[in-house]
Amino acid sequence: xxxxxxxxxxxxxxxxxxxxxxxxxxxxxxxxxxxxxxxxxxxxxxxxxxxxxxxxxxxxxxxxxxxxxxxxxxxxxxxxxxxxxxxxxxxxxxxxxxxxxxxxxxxxxxxxxxxxxxxxxxxxxxxxxxxxxxxxxxxxxxxxxxxxxxxxxxxxxxxxxxxxxxxxxxxxxxxxxxxxxxxxxxxxxxxxxxxxxxxxxxxxxxxxxxxxxxxxxxxxxxxxxxxxxxxxxxxxxxxxxxxxxxxxxxxxxxxxxxxxxxxxxxxxxxxxxxxxxxxxxxxxxxxxxxxxxxxxxxxxxxxxxxxxxxxxxxxxxxxxxxxxxxxxxxxxxxxxxxxxxxxxxxxxxxxxxxxxxxxxxxxxxxxxxxxxxxxxxxxxxxxxxxxxxxxxxxxxxxxxxxxxxxx
Length: 407
Fold this sequence. Notes:
This protein is an alpha+beta fold. It has three domains: 2-75, no CATH class; 85-240, Jelly Rolls (Sandwich), CATH 2.60.120.1440; 253-406, Tetratricopeptide repeat domain (Serine Threonine Protein Phosphatase 5, Tetratricopeptide repeat, Alpha Horseshoe). Helices cover 47% and strands 21% of the residues. Strands 1, 2, 3, 4, 5, 6, 7, 8, 9, 10, 11, 12, 13 and 14 form a 14-stranded mixed sheet that branches. A hairpin with a 2-residue loop joins strand 1 (85-87) and strand 2 (90-91). It is elongated. The protein starts with a helix and ends with a helix. The model is unreliable at 15-20, 41-48, 70-81 and 223-250 (pLDDT under 50).
């Protein structure tokens, strides 16, 4: 039996290259089965045919096993070793949130020599870390980073914004409550996208500081664009990177008209200026003003667009809560959609339980639910309204709702 296994080894070793491809593997397997079938050891003993078949089957199984063992090292590509990130003496788990401290700065050291330092009570998350790409999510606070040139592709995400690093030293500050982003570049340059920035993005070069707050942009200091040496990036990247767009102040003619009560003229002026552009650039208070002008001008669709932009760009703010209430009014009065109105009034009541508009929102919710055919839900809100605001302006409507429910 041992002689046959020696023979099997010689068959497998015959013409075996350093890294066989699929065709060579199949040819070796066929040759092995053919040689096993012709071995004199089986035929010379005159065994019955079923024993010969059994022997061939076992030989085929052994051949497949041996070939699999030989083929396995080449069948899968090399497994990438994890990219190491250290914090002090410990290793940072990829995907974990890192909370900074007021007592001292927190520094993350990356295997390629890059580093990220947090200031104060900053929250960051390493959403993706590999030798090809590093993505850092800035939840709140400020970080300073030194990215080694020609290393992985780096990007910092903060709210709706994404800062793509081209090999540089920079700081990124994000205050979600104010919608405030500050990107300062000490060496190299970065590419900032998202939010109120134009779709093609904005280049921030050495010595420049980009500030965004309440939808307004400002670019301070430094030259309009960095040199290729300062960029610290590949030649192809430097050649294809456009210069930062020139910032010009927005015309506010529509605002002056809206404040004078000339709503139709204000809406026309906003549309002439570029309504979609205004939605991406205006501060939250101006978005609410624009929505009121559109609503009072008889264009509920434009009003809803401005209010939705306010909620999308300034989430969890007083302006966003105001927008929810006004979206309810637009749906009820302008779009004749009581179910949509009820959804927005409910959302406002949930987001702003202490608002002075709470009684008004509850009364409007009663009417919207009634108009939408939700009598049971309307009666429930009516009882709550009369309990909390027995002398409120919607008291009569709440009582009528309850009388109608008893019928």
